[in-house]
Structure formats: C-alpha cells, structure tokens
Amino acid sequence: QVQLVESGGGLVQAGGSLRLSCAASGRSFSSYAMGWFRQAPGKERELVAAIDWNGGRTYYADSVKGRFTISRDNAKNTVYLQMISLKPDDTAVYCCAATRDYSGSYYLQRGEYDYWGQGTQVTVSS
Smaller CB count within 10 Å for the chain: N or C? Predict the structure, then answer.
C-alpha cells in the first residue's frame, strides 16, 4: 500500500512558477513509477508528466514540455513537479499517482496507476 499526499498548489499569475510535491508513505518507494495528472473543470484527467523508478526516464505531455520538470528523491519518498511559465490553461487539480514498476520505464495510461493522491489545486490568473 502506498499513500500519496500532494502539496504546493496555489494561486499564481501567468508567467509565474510553482513546485508541487508528492510525499509517499509506505515502503519501497523506489519500486514505484510515478506520474502527475491534472484535471480541469469539464475536462478529462490527463497525464502531465511521468518518471521511472529512479528518475532515469521521464515523459512530458506536449502541452507542458519545456515548462514542467518531474523529478524524484527516493531517499525522501517524494516526487516533484516544477512548473514555470505557467499559463491560465494550466489551471487544474493536480494529482500524483504511483504504480509498481515492472518494466523499468514510465507509464502513460491512467489505468496503469494503482494509487492516487487527493490532489492540489493550481490556479493561474491572467
């Protein structure tokens, strides 16, 4: 079992930055690949970024490539999402998710993730 708790969301002006954190409880955090998803009102939940068990491989949605950076610190059981040059379209609830890693890579499908956090609101004003 893994419990995930996000933090770091808030209200920021367009062009600003935020860093989200996702703290995981439980054992063997390094056995899990991680992802950050977001869901805006009236829209489907979408994958923003994903990372493999040790940070060697990462994936970004086209909409955030070059602006968002996913990273992890296995010693602290934490995964991060650094967001810069934020846009109003980035406004959403951001959730982290975890899945046992059997492939040594990242995972792209919502259904592949077993554990989810409650989410943190990010609001970008214009």
Answer: N
